[in-house]
């Protein structure tokens, strides 16, 4: 399925759900390079811990919980203190390099430039666990309008949809 291309602001067109045999090394190295560029542009540092957390998440397109990240960063010197991992996750989220998937209480790396995107829709495959991101189109404004009509002050709307990805359906 080569037609599954996300339009928009990213320079390299990417499949929302890359094929199981895709070159994931390239996904991961592109995302690290993107993170470095973003941090440099903002005068921020991708410290070793921040980078390790991002690399752990970039091991696949599946979200990881904070404790799974800690386990993956464990080595012969022990495991990192949870607070350092949480702080790194906060930094990465604030800089748009990681998203939290609320319904899974887990985190997923993001190599997209979301500048100008109104809303990101997270598509969660219940078979393989992969998470894809689709642009929300005009949905965000409709959600804000109906929230306001209820006298409710909406924050950024967030949409997570569980289903079956194109590769698992085949
Ligand atoms: Zn990949
Ligand atoms: Zn799937």
Ordered list of secondary-structure elements with their pairings:
Layout: H1 24-41, H2 48-57, H3 66-73, H4 82-94, E1 98-101, E2 106-109, E3 120-125, E4 131-135, H5 139-149, E5 159-163, H6 166-169
Parallel strand pairs: 3-5
Antiparallel strand pairs: 1-2, 3-4
The chain binds zinc ion (2 copies).
The site of one zinc ion has 7 residues, from helix 6.
Q: Quick one: how many beta strands?
A: 5
What are the segments in which pLDDT stays under 50 over at least 5 consecutive residues?
1-13
Q: Using the 3D structure, state the CATH architecture of the largest domain.
A: Orthogonal Bundle
Strand count, sense and barrel status of the largest sheet are:
3 strands, mixed
Strand order of the largest sheet: 4-3-5
**How many H/I helical runs?**
6
Structural class: alpha+beta
Mean pLDDT: 87
Per CATH, the class of the largest domain reads Mainly Alpha
User: How do the SSEs run, as a string of H and E?
Assistant: HHHHEEEEHEH
Radius of gyration, in angstroms, nearest whole number: 17 Å
In CATH, the homologous superfamily of the largest domain goes by the name Winged helix-like DNA-binding domain superfamily/Winged helix DNA-binding domain
What is the name of the CATH topology of the largest domain? Answer: Arc Repressor Mutant, subunit A
Termini gap: 10 Å
What is the count of structural domains? 2
Globular, elongated, flat, extended or rod-shaped: what is the shape? Answer: globular
